[in-house]
Amino acid sequence: MGSGCDATDEAPNGSKAVTLLLRLSTMALALTSAVVMATANECSIYEPPGARVTVTFKNYPPFVYLVGFNIAATILEAVGIYLQVGMGGGGDEEEAPKVAQVLLVFFDVAVPALLNLATGAAFSAVVAYRPEISACTGTAGQFCEQVHRSKLFSLAAGISASSAAFVKDVRLPFSVWPVSSDSDDC
Question: Which range is the signal sequence, renumbered to this chain (predicted)?
Answer without folding.
Answer: 1-30
